[in-house]
Hints:
Blueprint: E1 4-7, H1 13-20, E2 24-27, H2 36-45, E3 48-52, H3 59-62, E4 70-74, H4 83-88, E5 92-94, H5 101-116, H6 119-127, E6 147-151, H7 155-166, E7 170-174, H8 181-187, E8 189-191, H9 194-200, E9 203-206, H10 220-225, E10 231-234, H11 243-251, E11 257-260, H12 271-275, E12 279-281, H13 290-309
The structure holds 2-keto-D-gluconic acid.
Amino acid sequence: MQPTIAIAFKIPEDILSGLRTWAHVVEHQDATALPASQWQTRLNQADGVLISVFNPVSADQLTHTAALRMISSVGVGLNHIDLKACQEAKVHVANTPGVINHPTADHAFALLLGASRNVVGADRLVRAGQWTQPIAPMMGMDVHHRRIGIVGFGGVGQQIARRAIGFDMRVHYHQRHRLPTAQEQALQATYTPLSELLQISDFVVLQVPYNPSTHHMIGARELALMPKHAMLVNTARGGVLDEDALADALEQGRIAGAALDVFENEPHINPRLLQAPNLLLTPHLGSATAATRHEMISMAANHLHQFFNE
Length: 310
Ligand code: 8YV
């Protein structure tokens, strides 16, 4: 008998038809829009599921999923899944590492440049007919030859470093484990304790995985270490940053600006962030290019195929 695979969001037609050759597929355009009980019923009937980082899987949900043997998640972060409960329930979990590194690093740079040169504000100004004199009406902040501090130096963090070198920036990084010297040299990156990194960086980019030890790792105390002219970018997970502390710092002009792609309670935005000055917001777009998303979903579908057929 074919395994039943529940899909939590719309996937490309070619990948869907590939899945249909070996599985009974139960599709949903967007499981996040379903009443929780309906999605639970789907989970209860499934042998495998294809989800994204926007479909949490809790220990409580797993107590009802007798048939479920595999969760294939589109994305690298696994903080939305209770991994301990999966292990206990013998549910195999897969993610899609690697493929997101380049696009997410590109987006981190889009945010960094967008914030430092006020791209969105400038667009608004032009459209509002407020460009009345040839002299530029707004001043940005230099990116070239400035210091970037990357917090979390895995696949994405390292790609951000490579881009930063192209901008003639000096690269500092922090994470729990220091890289071997040869790798640091290849990336032209200097290992720096977090408090020092915050004090010396003109741009701080957060790219750490989210787990209990990184929850609110950047809060009022850490933001207070940053220089007044510095900017913060978060392309990791909303929960690594205390959003109220960031709103305070921006309101009080204690840092120059910030750009966020991820939020603690997505897709609901802390209303203080919507009011905060010098803040650029995007809706979790790190890996959101058509080619990358296709590759990610295809990889996640292949994980299911391998698990159920090999
Ligand atoms: C998401 C991400 O997967 O890989 C991750 O952990 O956060 C993103 O790539 C994507 O935005 C939606 O599934």
